[in-house]
């Protein structure tokens, strides 16, 4: 997809990208029930007889089916993979959501007192939506999406991954295309699943550095009286800076300094003298790019550093312009999604009804290879299925990634944990 | 109950050096109170220990509240102020310095632990009943815990954390690892402490950091990025260690209060201490323990005849505002407002018939409400409040804590505590309309701004409306305000020698249970 080509995510799609008939085939032939089951049961096989296995673990997981006409069916639960598959094929939900693992099977929730039926485990989840970037997006508006604004998601994925892994020590992280204009993140380590609501809130706040808003051009980076920025801010900045200043990065793509009020707002804390210098530069170089103007701003800050006298000035300069880069690139999370254990989030591998696209995993190590316009639609998949010449369908690479890079790693850890819980040596546990 | 066994081991020869060493890492009886005391004391001692502790907790509350302190700041600003209170309470154990004390330290400690434990568990029973009581108790016990924990030496502190199962290892710089002490010092807000040195304040950095799983750390340190995290571990400066342990303390105690709540019945039925505990349950939270007007005391009752006179004179601001607003706007009070006002009027003396008449008249000022609407929709509430319908227990007037805790007013609603609900400018307007003199207004604004002392503000208001009064008895409940006001005016009349034939003389019965002596 060239830079100019835009994808209308909400527009009318050709008939062959989505239809109930196509969905039916998709569920029958493509949806990875076994892999999803393996993920969500974390080696708690209902058929296993090893000690330490919680046989009803999968059954206590809440699912939601959304049927045609936006009918929500909550409190769905399944005994095992077979029932999971059978029920989905029977009801044909146009969307599914995944909730927490509760103390009892969700189907029994209405007969239990409120403080008895409660969530016990739930993946730590994050939701990043392009809507929250509307005040800094200039390439597209509304439901349109292109590779330029998709860049916001790429940097969000990299920043989120770094923080979750290096600061919090989480290892089993899954990024999923939300089907339209965003990304979901599922953190599946058992420590993450056991976090309380307060702890989830705290992690979400730790990860929050910016808030959206018209005329907001800098992040409020508090130094809290310290001599240096907090390492997570610094590390995030390193990633943000790269994506901000890259010739194909956000500053250039969105032409930030030449659109709207952004430059005026950014210049606000600078002195009259400094503002004049910029004004002069722009008068003399009327076709200067955003990047070139940015470099000039950085020169100004460097000049300041030579003259800074007080502790306060030094601290201000440490943050100046870094806060701008962060404001325009740092991930904007919808923290409400993360704070509660019983929040329901769309399941990976479901299909977006407006676009027909499958919510596939995104490999965070290769963010540049992911192109939302190339995500397979179910129309496409069914076509490929009928093509005798095709070796495999477009879904295969995504399933392969899910299997090898996420699921197998997860199962290794889950097996080890199961072993520790039951005090049994690994050879005894049954494999799938 | 078993008897306390005194230390039976003999100290054969006394070696000061080793004795000092042993005691210096002593935990000074700092505890999570996991196990109930196993000692025998007299009823008198039980009451004394418990009353002392309650007095100490109130003293801590007052000392802290006037400064809205964070736990980190407690040691330096609060501890020095409470020297007397700690000594008097007998609830403090310090490291022995003299030979004499070292010899008796163990015995002293056992006795201290007994007093500490008994009084703590007794107060659990006293404060487990309502959410307000639990929150207050948790907060003060947490503060007391912090003060004691801070008095321990470093080894004792680390040992205590370890004994509570909190993985707590000292950070040691390792070759090849990116994390250095210097980096931690420069990035952690709590690590920089401003120390007074030869007249100026200089920053000093904490030299010790502890490594622990991030889940052990209070959430606000994570959410504010106030500790460095790496691979799931948090690096906590020694000065903030108390926050980690205090969080655990609070969690434990909150659970224990739940247990106490379910088990309180047996204790309350005990003939020796049940009455005492019940008194504590009812009065333990009192901000001020002034003479409480009992319900037996003859007093002036609120009636339809004296209503207009008493409204501006004796009504507490929260209730006065409700009546006046309803009249001014000719819009009937919404549910929360009625729920607040109704039992107050009842407690002040309205009979059922008077209440019905009054409410009918007032509500019908609103053009939307007719006599029929009243009968249909509002009459039942009165019957309910007077115990004639519903659960037949009637409605009691809310106390100040509950009114203060009311949710914010939505448009069209009027309820809650005046000093909390109104913005400073709106409050000023209201106080001016009530002709509160300027010095009182400023004091009220100050109390609210500097510590959210709504109840103290109300006492100020009372004092401004009742010159030369000391506001005794005011501040815990609107009914007390009303009664104190009525009493004040009665006494004024007595002094003047004019007594209206319809008014009764109120006798002040000072009921001060001996057990509660909060200053």
Automatic annotation (TrEMBL), chain A:
<dbReference type="InterPro" id="IPR014052">
    <property type="entry name" value="DNA_primase_ssu_euk/arc"/>
</dbReference>
<keyword id="KW-0804">Transcription</keyword>
<dbReference type="Pfam" id="PF01896">
    <property type="entry name" value="DNA_primase_S"/>
</dbReference>
<keyword id="KW-0479">Metal-binding</keyword>
<protein>
    <recommendedName>
        <fullName>DNA primase</fullName>
        <ecNumber>2.7.7.-</ecNumber>
    </recommendedName>
</protein>
<keyword id="KW-0235">DNA replication</keyword>
<dbReference type="InterPro" id="IPR002755">
    <property type="entry name" value="DNA_primase_S"/>
</dbReference>
<keyword id="KW-0548">Nucleotidyltransferase</keyword>
<comment type="similarity">
    <text>Belongs to the eukaryotic-type primase small subunit family.</text>
</comment>
<keyword id="KW-0240">DNA-directed RNA polymerase</keyword>
<keyword id="KW-0808">Transferase</keyword>
<keyword id="KW-0639">Primosome</keyword>
UniProtKB/TrEMBL annotation, chain B:
<keyword id="KW-0004">4Fe-4S</keyword>
<keyword id="KW-0411">Iron-sulfur</keyword>
<dbReference type="InterPro" id="IPR058560">
    <property type="entry name" value="DNA_primase_C"/>
</dbReference>
<dbReference type="InterPro" id="IPR016558">
    <property type="entry name" value="DNA_primase_lsu_euk"/>
</dbReference>
<dbReference type="Pfam" id="PF26466">
    <property type="entry name" value="DNA_primase_lrg_N"/>
</dbReference>
<dbReference type="InterPro" id="IPR007238">
    <property type="entry name" value="DNA_primase_lsu_euk/arc"/>
</dbReference>
<feature type="region of interest" description="Disordered">
    <location>
        <begin position="1"/>
        <end position="20"/>
    </location>
</feature>
<keyword id="KW-0479">Metal-binding</keyword>
<keyword id="KW-0235">DNA replication</keyword>
<protein>
    <recommendedName>
        <fullName>DNA primase large subunit C-terminal domain-containing protein</fullName>
    </recommendedName>
</protein>
<keyword id="KW-0238">DNA-binding</keyword>
<comment type="similarity">
    <text>Belongs to the eukaryotic-type primase large subunit family.</text>
</comment>
<feature type="domain" description="DNA primase large subunit C-terminal">
    <location>
        <begin position="310"/>
        <end position="482"/>
    </location>
</feature>
<keyword id="KW-0639">Primosome</keyword>
<dbReference type="Pfam" id="PF04104">
    <property type="entry name" value="DNA_primase_lrg"/>
</dbReference>
<keyword id="KW-0408">Iron</keyword>
């Amino acid at each position: 997809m060239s830079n100019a080509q835009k994808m209308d995510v909400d527009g009318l799609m050709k008939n062959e990208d989505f239809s109930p008939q196509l969905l039916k085939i998709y569920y029958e032939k493509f949806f990875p029930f076994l892999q999803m089951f393996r993920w969500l049961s974390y080696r708690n096989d209902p058929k296993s007889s090893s000690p330490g296995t919680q046989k009803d673990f999968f059954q206590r997981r809440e699912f939601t089916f959304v049927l045609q006409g936006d009918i929500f069916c909550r409190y769905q639960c399944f005994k095992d993979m077979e029932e999971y598959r059978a029920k989905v094929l029977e009801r044909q939900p146009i969307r599914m959501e995944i909730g927490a693992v509760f103390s009892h099977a969700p189907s029994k929730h209405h007969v239990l007192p409120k403080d008895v039926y409660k969530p016990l485990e739930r993946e730590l989840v994050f939701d990043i939506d392009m809507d929250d970037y509307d005040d800094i997006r200039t390439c597209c508006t509304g439901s349109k999406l292109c590779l330029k604004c998709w860049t916001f998601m790429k940097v969000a994925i990299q920043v989120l991954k770094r923080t979750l892994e290096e600061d919090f020590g989480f290892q089993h992280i899954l990024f999923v295309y939300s089907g339209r204009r965003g990304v979901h993140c599922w953190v599946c380590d058992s420590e993450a699943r056991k976090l309380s609501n307060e702890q989830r809130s705290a992690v979400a706040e730790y990860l929050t550095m910016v808030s959206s808003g018209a005329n907001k051009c800098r992040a409020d980076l508090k130094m809290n009286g310290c001599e240096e920025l907090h390492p997570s801010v610094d590390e995030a900045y390193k990633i943000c800076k790269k994506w901000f200043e890259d010739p194909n990065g956000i500053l250039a793509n969105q032409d930030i300094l030449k659109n709207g009020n952004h430059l005026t707002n950014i210049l606000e804390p600078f002195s009259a003298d400094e503002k004049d210098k910029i004004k002069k530069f722009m008068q003399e170089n009327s076709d200067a790019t955003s990047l070139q103007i940015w470099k000039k701003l950085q020169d100004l800050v460097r000049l300041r550093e030579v003259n800074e006298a007080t502790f306060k000035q030094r601290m201000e300069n440490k943050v100046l312009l870094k806060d701008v880069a962060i404001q325009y690139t740092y991930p904007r999370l919808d923290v409400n999604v993360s704070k509660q254990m019983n929040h329901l989030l769309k399941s990976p591998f479901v299909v977006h009804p407006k676009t027909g696209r499958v919510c596939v995993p995104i490999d965070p190590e290769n963010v540049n290879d992911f192109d939302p316009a190339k995500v397979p639609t179910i129309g496409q998949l069914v076509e490929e299925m009928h093509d005798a010449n095709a070796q495999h369908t477009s879904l295969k690479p995504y399933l392969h990634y899910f299997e090898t890079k996420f699921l197998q790693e997860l199962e290794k850890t889950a097996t080890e944990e199961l072993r520790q819980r039951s005090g049994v040596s690994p050879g005894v546990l049954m494999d799938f | 109950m078993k008897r306390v066994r005194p230390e039976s081991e003999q100290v054969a020869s006394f070696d000061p050096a080793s004795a000092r060493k042993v005691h210096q890492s002593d935990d000074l009886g700092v505890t999570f109170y996991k196990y109930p005391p196993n000692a025998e004391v007299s009823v008198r001692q039980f009451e004394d220990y418990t009353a002392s502790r309650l007095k100490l907790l109130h003293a801590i509350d007052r000392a802290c509240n006037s400064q809205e302190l964070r736990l980190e700041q407690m040691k330096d600003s609060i501890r020095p102020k409470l020297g007397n209170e700690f000594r008097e309470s007998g609830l403090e154990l310090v490291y022995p310095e003299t030979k004499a004390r070292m010899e008796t330290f163990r015995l002293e400690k056992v006795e201290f632990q007994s007093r500490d434990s008994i009084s703590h568990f007794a107060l659990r029973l006293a404060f487990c009943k309502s959410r307000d009581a639990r929150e207050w108790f948790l907060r003060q016990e947490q503060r007391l815990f912090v003060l004691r924990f801070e008095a321990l030496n470093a080894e004792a502190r680390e040992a205590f954390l370890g004994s509570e199962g909190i993985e707590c290892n000292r950070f040691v710089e390792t070759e090849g690892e990116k994390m250095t002490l210097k980096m931690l010092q420069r990035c952690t807000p709590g690590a920089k402490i401003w120390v007074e040195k030869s007249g100026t304040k200089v920053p000093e950095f904490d030299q010790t950091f502890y490594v622990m799983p991030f889940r052990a750390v209070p959430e606000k340190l994570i959410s504010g990025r106030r500790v460095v995290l790496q691979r799931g571990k948090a690096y906590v400066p020694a000065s903030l260690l108390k926050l980690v342990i205090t969080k655990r303390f609070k969690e434990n105690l909150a659970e224990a209060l739940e247990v106490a709540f379910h088990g309180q019945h047996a204790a309350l039925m005990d003939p020796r201490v049940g009455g005492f505990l019940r008194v504590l349950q009812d009065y333990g939270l009192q901000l001020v323990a002034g003479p409480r007007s009992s319900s037996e005391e003859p007093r002036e009752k609120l009636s339809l005849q004296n209503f207009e006179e008493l409204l501006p004179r004796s009504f507490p601001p929260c209730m006065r505002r409700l009546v006046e607003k309803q009249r001014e706007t000719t819009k009937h009070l919404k549910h929360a407002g009625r729920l607040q006002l109704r039992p107050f009027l009842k407690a002040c003396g309205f009979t059922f018939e008077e209440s019905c008449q009054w409410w009918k008249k007032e509500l019908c000022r609103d053009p939307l409400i007719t006599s029929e609407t009243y009968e249909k929709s509002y009459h039942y509430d009165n019957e309910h409040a007077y115990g004639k319908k519903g659960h037949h227990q009637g409605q009691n007037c809310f106390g100040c804590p509950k009114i203060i805790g009311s949710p914010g007013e939505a448009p069209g609603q009027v309820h809650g505590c005046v000093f909390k609900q109104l913005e400073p400018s709106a409050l000023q307007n209201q106080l001016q309309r009530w002709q509160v003199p300027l010095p009182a207004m400023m004091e009220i604004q100050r109390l609210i701004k500097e510590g959210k002392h709504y109840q103290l503000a109300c006492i100020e208001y009372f004092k401004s409306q009742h010159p030369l009064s000391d506001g005794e008895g005011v501040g815990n409940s609107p009914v007390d305000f009303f009664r104190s006001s009525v009493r004040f005016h009665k006494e004024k009349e007595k002094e003047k020698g004019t007594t209206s034939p319809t008014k009764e003389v109120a006798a002040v019965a000072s009921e001060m249970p001996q057990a509660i002596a909060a200053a």
